[in-house]
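Q: Here's a chain of 318 amino acids. Please give me its 3D structure as tokens.
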Amino acid sequence: MDLSKWRSRFTTPRALLLGLSVASLLIGAGGATAHYLKWTWGDRAQPIGWLLSMLFLLLAFCPPPRQIAANIKCLKNPKTAFFVFWILVFVVSHLWNFRTAPWNGNALFDESGWDLFFVKSYIVHQPFQAAWFDDPFHITRESLFHYYVWGFLRLFGYNILSFEAAQFVIWCTTFIFTLLLVDLFFKSYIVTSLTALIFNFLPFAFVYTFGGYRYPMGTVLCVISLYFLHLGFKRASSFYLSLGGIAAGLCLASSISGKQYVYVLLLFGLLYAGWHIIQRGFGTASLAFRVPGSSFLMRCLFRWPTTFSYSPVLFSRY
């Protein structure tokens, strides 16, 4: 490659932002190392590095402003109205007779109480970690869901309704991206409408919208990741691939189900996807995956015995 072309390629704003993303990633890794070695300066450097790394990565592949404006204008179409209708159906049906429902804010499901106890014991007064070892249960709990809930509690008050509102947003987002994914596959209003009806009134999903488990955080990130990865490969878009990769990395730090999605995603890529397809977008997606996923990997590196202490118990049942 000509030296002048090589220099011009790596002096663009995209290259600068990618460099800042990698530098922020190294700062996050250094902060994580310092944190686990009990050096206090790493407590803040760790989350700041991870967040800035994701931000710079998205900015590096972000479409130009004109394209963003054109995409927004394209939203004025019947399909947007179709999705808005089903979102309203989801919201109204779940809030119908809310005062007399079991999840009316006067009580908690058992698992919800333990998650709030975890927030109070490990999240509120402790520096950031991708996972914490829960002494009462002798397991390591991924903390992404609990930091998300803590944000709702700080914004809307420390009460049960704030916690249930956080759960509602997770399930509504899962509903939206499930419909988007089905529409991407089938391009059919009928199929998408049937999916919306089944998802919305499926008893398990309906009841556990306010149930309080941390596992739906992994579910929503899986659906988001799958949608953007499929869209990114279909349109050859580095921005969508980076969004899908970041969501996959967050899956790794969300729950056991999120880790299972990552394993299946990697296996599918190796066994079924064509090599030319992998080459076309694998670099972008894998880089995006490493940014948020590395926070959990650093936890594994420094706290390996406690991170997977419960895994042999689960595997022994099979």
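Q: Can you summarize the key feature?
A: The longest strand covers residues 131-134.
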